[in-house]
Amino acid sequence: MPDRLVYSTDGGRINTCPRCGLPNAKCRCDQPPAGQQPTRKSDGIVRIMRDKKHRGGKTVTVISGVATSQNEMAALAQQLKKLCGSGGTVKDGVIEIQGDHCDKIQARLTELGYKVKRAGG
Ligand SMILES: [Zn+2]
């Protein structure tokens, strides 16, 4: 190897992936296989709790831990809103349904295959 190669690579050290040997920027080892959406985390436990918003003391049902894509969460929220006949929102990975619908929502999510835990009151 010519000595000057040292200079040409100086400062340009590339961290490569030990698995595929590609530079980390190109490595896709940690990415889900093509065509597969990220699925729920294996230990993904969905928590349902009743929460009273400060504004007006309205009760909402809060569903957290649904580790799916934003689209899936929106679809799920849509389903739950319909189920409960209430409004609701998806925000920061949490679904909020207006009113106290813990029982209904727990039953539905369990049906859908989620592990559901009741949290708080
Ligand atoms: Zn890799």
Could you give a short description of this structure?
With 121 residues, this protein is of the alpha+beta class. It contains three helices and five strands. The longest helix is centred in the middle third of the chain and has 15 residues, at 70-84.
- As a whole number of angstroms, the C-alpha radius of gyration is 23 Å
Ligands in the model, by name, code or SMILES, are: zinc ion
Average pLDDT, rounded to a whole number, is 81
Roughly how much helix do the residues carry, as a percent range?
A: 25-40%
* CATH homologous superfamily designation of the domain at 38-121: SUI1-like domain
Number of helices: 3
Task: Report the sheet with the most strands, covering strand number, pairing sense and barrel closure.
Answer: 5 strands, mixed
Q: What string, H for helix and E for strand, traces the elements in order?
A: HEEHEEHE
- What is the CATH C-level name of the domain at 38-121? Alpha Beta
Oligomer: single chain
Q: Hey, roughly how much beta strand do the residues contain?
A: 15-25%
- Ranges with pLDDT <50 over ≥5 residues? 5-10
Number of strands: 5
Description:
- It is a single chain.
- It contains 3 helices and 5 strands; from the N terminus they run H-E-E-H-E-E-H-E.
- With 121 residues, it is an alpha+beta fold.
- It has a domain at 38-121: Translation Initiation Factor Eif1, CATH 3.30.780.
- It has a 5-stranded mixed β-sheet with strand order 3-4-2-1-5, covered by helices on one side.
- It is elongated.
- Zinc ion binds next to loops.
